[in-house]
Amino acid sequence: MPPKKADEGEQKGAARFGRVKNNLKMGLLGLPNVGKSSLFNLLTEQSIAAENYPFCTIDPNESRCPVPDERYDFLCNMWNPPSKYPAYLHVTDIAGLVRGASEGAGLGNAFLSHVAAVDGLFHVVRAFDNDEVVHVDDSVDPVRDLETIQMELCKKDLDYLSRAEADAIKDVKKTPNMKLPLHFYSTFEKVKELLQANKPVRDAEWTAKEVELIMEKMPNLLTSKPMIYLVNLSAADFQRKKNKWLAKIHQWVQEHGGGPMIPISVQFEQKLWELRENPTALQAYLEETKCASALPKVIVTGYKELNLIYYFTAGETEVRCWTILKGTLAPQAAGVIHTDFERGFIKAEVVAFDDFKRLTTTKGMAEVKAAGRYRQEGKAYVVEDGDIIHFQFNVTAKKK
Question: Could you count the other beta carbons within 10 Å of the beta carbon of residue 359?
């Protein structure tokens, strides 16, 4: 007898929770004085305050940073249009969290509401010693710091979970003929058990039905957000690619929900920033240290963890990246440009970037068309990352 097919509702690996929108944001999370605001400044090239005392950041600062992409650079160099618009990652610098925040300590609920307002998190972890930079707990212990933040997020989620469950039951009682789905209580219990064990909601395998219920009934769970761990090293440790805490941090991450872990050094990045207007000195420093900036990897990873991709429009007047969620259909992708494009969608004329680069020696699509790589796609087409698209639409089409 052949093996029984897996339940089509099963979703293996990390579940995708969160808002179904294109303008998603990453937040910089961590204890005070771990390098969040300095990193935010470097990412967004702004001069946000980054002083050496706790709670320098109170209200969250928001900005955006361009997503580095050689494909975009290639198109810009080919067309050299007057208008160039890359993809952007939106980033929020959140005030430092302290032990007891879930019960009101430090900035308490204000801080946690700022976490709730973003869609993914860069967790900045301090792994450098420096007597001149105050640590909120007087000593550097990244694993302890990781435990502190996860515990506070789980506690806040437990409080939210009990209210969300009560609200859902109340809605059913006052609505005739309304029933809760059969997996309602089991899903809530599964979430509760994870949080009580100080584990994030993302640290489990969820069926598609469970994901749908969580997004509908408890959409503001903090620990359902994707997490990227940025380990802030001293410049010396970053250059020699060694640090006594890295293995311990990696083990902790794998045991508590997983997620990308990227070693960085704000100290090293600041040196690069200081040399930015002296290309000769900058190149000499890079050759001397045999290191490169980690910021491009941080930005690209953040964009990917939000489940975002983009397609290109390219021509004489403009090269532009259009951000969409992975899995978006052609009409909805067209709607990112203008609602009329979606409403009056006829077809999408598409070429994959790799085909365009391989086949094209001059501006235009003539060589791509001659090679049979220029396709016409309809309403069911799922847009792929890096597609170059021209949409055909009829603006007189009536709304249905």
Answer: 18
